[in-house]
Amino acid sequence: MEVDRLVNGIGGVTLLNRLILVGSPLAGQRARSRLDGQLMHVLTQDGVLWRTLPCPIPPGQRHRLQGVRLAGPAPLPEATVTAQRRVSSRGGIQVARQRIQVGMTHAGKIVTVVTENNTFRLIIDSETVGVVSRTTSREIDRFNAHATHPRKAVNPCRK
Questions:
Q1: Which is the most buried residue in 31, 104, 118, 137, by most CB within 10 A?
Q2: Is residue 19 helix, strand or coil?
Q3: Would the pTM count as exceeding 0.85?
C-alpha cells in the first residue's frame, strides 16, 4: 500500500495522527510513503527512494489511512549524496558534523565525499584515498567547497 502526503516545514508527514519525520530537504514537496510489511519507504516526487524507516502503522490499521491505494512500481535505488570539502592545513574535514582525518599530505586539496550505506568514501583527483565508517546519523546540508584564493597584496602606503 502507498499514500501521498505533503511534507511540512520540519520535514514530517502525518499518518493516522502520528508525525513521522522523513527529512527536512523534502519540506514543501509531495512525498510517497510505501508501506511494505514492517518497513516504510519514502519516495520523492521523481520516484527515487529517499529513506527507509520502520513502519509506524500496524498492518491491521493501514486500511484507515486517507488516500491509501495499492502500491505502484518498486522504488528506484537510493541516490548517493556527494559533498565537497577543502582539506584543512591539519589534514582534516568535517561532514555532517563528523570529523574525518584525510591526511596532512592532502592539505588544501578539494576532496569529494560520497555517502554510501554506512560509510563515507573520500575521492581526490578521481582516486579513492579512503573509506571511513559513518558514525553520525545527521543529514548533509552543505555540499560545495571552494579552493583557497590568494590574498590581495595590501599597499602599506595607501590608507
A1: 31
A2: strand
A3: no
